[in-house]
Hints:
Strand order of the largest sheet: 1-4-8-7-5-6
Distance between the termini: 147 Å
Amino acid sequence: MDDFSGSFGCFVPIMGCILLIFCMCVGEATGVPPFGIFMIIVFAVIIIGIICICIYSRHENKIYKKHEDRIKTIQKKYSLAYKKFVRENRIDIERNPKMGKYPKLSELKKISNRDDTTWEQEEKKLKKEKEEQERIRKENEKTAKAIKDKYPDGFENWEHIERLLHSFYFIDDQKIIESERSIAARDKHVKSEQWEKRQSDFSDECYKISKSSLSSYGRYYYDIPFTKYDVNGRAISGEYQVWQFFCDSMCLEELDYTYYKEKKENSSWGAELKNKTRYYNPNVYDRIAKFIKVIADLYLEDKGATTTVLFNYDKDWSKDSLDYHYNPLRTILAKEETKAHIVCSSSNENYNAKIPSSGAIIVFDIVTENDELKRLCEKIISQAEGSHPVIAYITLLKAYDKAEMQELIDKETQRQAKIRAEQEKEENAKKNLMYAVSSWHSMYGGLHFHYFINYYPTTCDFDATEEEWSDRWLIWNFKNSLGKTSVSDHESALQQVIPMITNFLIETFGEDSLKYLVLFCIPASKKINNVRRYEDFSNRLCNATGMVNAFDHVTIIKDAEEKHLGGSGDCEVELDKDFFKDKYVLIFDDLITKGRSMLKYQSKLTSAGAKIVAGISIGKTKHHRDE
């Protein structure tokens, strides 16, 4: 097709020249103008050209279709080789009739002119390569899945890090296989971290439950040697805290047992338990069984795991003796509706059983020394490293080692010394309370008292100054009598009185000594007035000074009857004798006239067991300025 086009391109100019000469000759011969001859020839050529073009186009279409059909056969029969050939030779065979786009015949020829033998050889080769790739892919997929299944926690952690570091949306199997060591190391790391946290959470849960189930039991925790792993799989030291709960305790060491006499007295119990001359009451086993049941049911519900009660037979006791002390708990657990199951463990071949390797393990022992506890816990951890159980330890009789016992003795010695120092400080402070008021005014009977202002009643036969009137209003507004004082006036009075009394008491007794004083406000004649006058005042003054408030320990049983109605003018009061016993009391009254009220309540409070330090008031009634 291309050769014909090139020949035709050279032939056209030659034919043009011949045609021009021919027209001129014929025109001379026929007398027809050369142009006419030319036009006749042009029309004839056009018609002949169209016929030729049609013939050529039809011929070319046949050739094009022949190549297309050939390519379809190749594409169907040698699909892999076809795709590779088109891709490697960058042949554009896109066909889009709507867009008027068709492959070039020259491109089609590149494909169709290739012989079948070549296509067949290429196809066989590619099929083998594809089968090999598929085999490798399936093998990699299987290997990668095995890695994921074997190291699920490590894979999840590794995958998360990879996506963060490399922004991978898809991680292929080959990458997983190449990173198996890293995934395995991370799996060990994650599992050991999870195990450590599970033990910590389990210990916290056991401690909380023991506060109710084993409330009177002792508690001690131990850090068991525990190996965990970093992200590179290197062994590092971890924290594996196990709580030990015990009914009784003892110590076999020679120490000063002044504050722990029972620890020394119990030192013979171990031998007595071993010889079956001592035993524990059934209620002890009942409480332990209750604790185990709560743990077992909770652990099954939250973790979907069982709880194992591990009776420690790894001891130099006879089996008969061990069974004697273990069977009561076995019997109770067998009757209880619990998810726990029982397994015995011993280094003795006659009683040896495999230590459980999953869930929660509660070790139950009769007498336990610390080395024994740690040894058994380490044994459980080492044998169950793949399943990661959690552990708690219950002992009937705990044997403190020397260091533990000495630590308890030292702490108790320090506590007792602190108590003695505090008691001595308190006694000295209370003695100083009495001494601090020795310079105050003294009433008949020796009661010391202090007041801040002179109160001149309106019955005085002289005109009061502005300051004296101000003092009168201070007393009246403080009393806060119903219907006579506004809320704002009473608050204003409190804001003057409370700081005045606070500063004076701190200056007199010292801030640290005021906590030993009890504030007693002499009750008003009526309950309603007593509340209005003293409840808020006593609370605020005690908060400011640190004194103890006695307001809630004084009860007005009956309001006073007015004197003009035949009453005494005093209310009936009941004191909380348990509260006032041995308390150092400061008596407060808003106003002292003759001091009879203070003396009266001094007597009442003394009868209740209180020690009266002094009396204090805002003012003292005077009728003459020179009194």
